[in-house]
Every structure is written in C-alpha cells, then in structure tokens.
Amino acid sequence: MTTYAPASEQEATAIVAQAAGRSERLRLVGGNTKAAFGRPPQDEATLASTGLTGITLYEPAEMVVAARAGTPLAEVQALLAERGQMLPFEPIDHRPLLGSTGTPTFGAVAAVNNSGPRRINAGAARDSLIGVRFVNGRGEAIKSGGRVMKNVTGLDLVKLMAGSWGTLGLLTEVTFKVLPVQERAATLVLTGLDDAAAIEALSAALGSPFELTGAAHLPAGIGGPEARTLMRIEGFSKSVEYRLGELRRLLRRRGEATLIEGEDSAALWRAVRDATFLAEPREAAVWRISTVPGRGPEVTAAVARQRSARWFYDWGGGLIWLATDAAEDAGTAIVREAVRAAGGHATLVRAPETVRAAVPVFEPLPDPLMRLTTGIKAAHDPAGLFNPGRMYAGV
Q1: How much is the average pLDDT of 315-331?
Q2: Which segments of the chain does DSSP mark as H helices, in order?
Q3: Is the torsion defined by CA of 271, 272, 274, 278 positive or negative?
Q4: Over 60: is that where the pLDDT of 153 sits?
Q5: Are 130 and 145 in contact (CB under 8 A)?
Q6: What is the band of 155 on the pLDDT scale with cuts at 50, 70, 90?
Q7: CA 218, CA 153: separation in Å to the nearest integer?
Q8: In terms of Cα–Cα distance, which of 250, 253, 210 is closest to 232?
C-alpha cells in the first residue's frame, strides 16, 4: 500500500487533489497508535501527518500553543512543562490498552477529542481547541479559528474537526489554550465502598465547592484487592490542604480517607487515564461508556447479569471502562440496551477486526443525525476519500 507523508501543507493539498482525481481512498494517520480503534480500514493508500512537524507558536503569557499535526505530543508537553504549563484535558495514551506502538501526535489529540480524567474540571480537548488548519477532500487548505476564544456564527469548523477521526480532512496544524501546572496535587482514597456508595460519595464531592480535578472508582480486583474511590485535588498548597480537610469532613460517614501524593498519585491517575487496569487479558473487548453518573452502577449491573465483565468508573461515574469477552458480538446488544435504558452512548474501543466489521463501533445515530453527518461528510469530503467507513458504515 502506498504511503504519502507530505512535508508541508502545500504538498498535502497536492496529494489530496491528485487522490481525488483518481478516487483513491486514503487512510489518515498520525503516529498510528490508534489503528485498531474504529471500523476496519476500507482504503487504498495511507496519508500520514508525520512529516508535518514543528511547534509554530508558543506564547506562555497568552497561554496558547500551536504545532503542526505530526509533531510528537511529548515534544509539546515537554516545552509546556519547561514553562510550568500543561494541556488542560489530560490526553489519554491509547498504547497500553490497544497494545500499539508508535508516537502519539499533537494533531491526533484534536482529531479524536482525546480527553482524560481532568475533563470533569477543565473540559474536553475540543473545549481548549481554538484553531485548526486542515486539507479538505477537494485538496483545499482551510483555516478556522485563531489564537483566542471567540463566539462564532454558522458552522464552527474548529469544534467540528474535534472528534471527527480524520473523516472530514487532514489536520495540518492545531492550536490549544493551555493552563499552569498546579503547585500541588493530592488524592484522597476511600476504601471498601460498593459501586453505588462510591458514586454517591463522588457526587457529593463533585457537588461541593472544593473543586475536584479527578473522581474515579476502582471496584475490588481492579488494580488491587480492595475497592478504592479516588478524589484528586490540585492547586496552591494551602488551598489543597484546606480543601482536603473539608472533603474529609464532608465524607467522614463513608469511612476514613487516606492520602496519596507525589508519583504514587500521578501513577494512579495515569492508569485511570489510560485504562491500563483493563489492558489484560489482551483478547478481551473493551467498551468506553458515557452515561448519567448516578446511573453508572445500573449500567454495569445490567451487563453483568448477562455477561462476565470487569469495569471501573471515571468522571464521577459518568464514564465507564468495561471489559468483556470478545466472542460473538463482544456484548454489543447487551451493552447498548443497558446504555439505552440509562441514557448515554457506548464506543467499542478494542475488539478483533472481525467484530469491529460486524457491529457498530461508535454509538449508532438516529436517522436525522445520520443524515446530518452524511451531509457534513459530503460537504467537506465529497468523493469520500478520507477514512471511509472508519466511524460509520458507508460514511
């Protein structure tokens, strides 16, 4: 299979225009760390952003960073760390879960709306994304957004590109707002709570004025023999100390909370972020389920009544990572019925290619939304060149 790796946006526009002329379908990739995510490829050539590298703008005082799409994510994060700054939304590293190699890229963060545990406080990647450059299916270079947040009328291409999984265009440059690294991060841990009690505790903490930046629950057997309910607080040291004390008082009837700090706390949240608790066994399918936080235990219980499964919760219970047997449909009918009853959506993150070809990987859309999705795809990629069928069959 041919691989194109343009070194400039101008070169990328020429490649896409030529591909459109011969109806050559293109698989868009960055570091190729998420190749096993989504429906199986239906393409004839690969278009990689790996030649589009370099940080193009960094203004620490304005808290804005821009880089070409193929720039390694780690390179951007290292530059930010030198100035005591960070990406707000704690992007996931999918490699542990998917068993992939390669290097995560800055553009892919925007392309998949990559957001981790801090989303409950700082929002998703799309909420910090303020500018994009991309090449559409006609081979045209498009710029949208800029260096500041602003309201827009009409179609917001910046937000549209976030989470489009390369189906609308090849991102060539992205711009994000950044935040200062916090002086102190600490995690309170309650042990022994069942799922329902843990979600109640997390809901109480999130509803308090003490500003959590992480809220997760690990049932017994997930990362340890005892169930652990995790609450992260970040900020200036004195503020963190005060809020920890207040949270202990708020939750005292739920048990004595222990405190984790430093690398132990950071490592625990990396494991939550990357879902490494479910990385093994490799043959298991893994679902990412978003639902109403208070109904998370209802969803997992409904699945567990019909199918062997393991799971943990993030986002105060609003995000469920669930592993189950990949046989047959990887529990698709059971999972989607449980989610339908509670409200939300489910994405099949990991499964054999045969399963991903046979079942909807992303949440099926109602007919009106599917017509809208198809129309947007046709407007930006009229020949259907980019990642055909990656998200939805025929789109």
Answers
A1: 97
A2: 9-21, 73-82, 95-98, 106-111, 119-122, 125-128, 157-161, 195-206, 237-250, 262-274, 296-304, 332-342, 353-358, 367-380
A3: positive
A4: no
A5: yes
A6: low
A7: 43
A8: 210
Reported as a pLDDT band with limits 50, 70 and 90, residue 236 is very high
What's the pTM? 0.95
Q: At what angle do helices 296-304 and 332-342 cross, to 10 degrees?
A: 150
Q: What is the pLDDT of residues 274-294, one digit of tens each?
A: 999 999 999 999 999 999 999
Q: How many angstroms separate the Cα of 181 from the Cα of each of 175, 200, 274, 371, 383?
A: 19, 29, 20, 42, 44
Q: Is 23 left (phi over 0), alpha (psi -120 to 50) or beta?
A: left
Apex CA 197: angle with CA 196 and CA 199, to 5°? 65
**How far is the CA of 89 from the CAs of 12, 71, 76, 181, 366, in angstroms?**
29, 18, 14, 12, 29
Q: Is 188 left (phi over 0), alpha (psi -120 to 50) or beta?
A: beta
Report whether the peptide linkage leading into residue 297 is cis, meaning its omega lies within 30 degrees of zero.
Answer: no
d(CA 317, CA 166): 29
Q: Say which residue the tokens 């299979």 belong to.
A: 1
Structure tokens that stand for 75 in this block: 């390179």
Beta strands in 129-222 (DSSP E): 129-135, 141-145, 170-177, 179-180, 184-191, 212-218
Asked if the model's pLDDT at residue 225 lies above 50, the reply is yes
Mean pLDDT of 170-198: 98
Residues paired with residue 57 on neighbouring β-strands, in sequence order? 66
- Quick check: 342 and 292 in contact, CB under 8 A? yes
**Helix 195-206 / helix 296-304 crossing angle, nearest 10 deg:** 160
Give the burial class of 35: count Cβ atoms within 10 A of its Cβ; 0-12 exposed, 13-18 middle, 19 or more buried: middle
Q: Domains of the chain (ranges plus CATH)? A: 47-180 (3.30.465.10), 184-274 (3.30.70.2190), 278-358 (3.30.70.1710)
- Other CB atoms within 10 A of residue 169 CB: 28
Residue 318 in this model has a pLDDT that exceeds 60: yes
User: Which of 42, 36, 6, 35 is CA-nearest to residue 170?
Assistant: 6
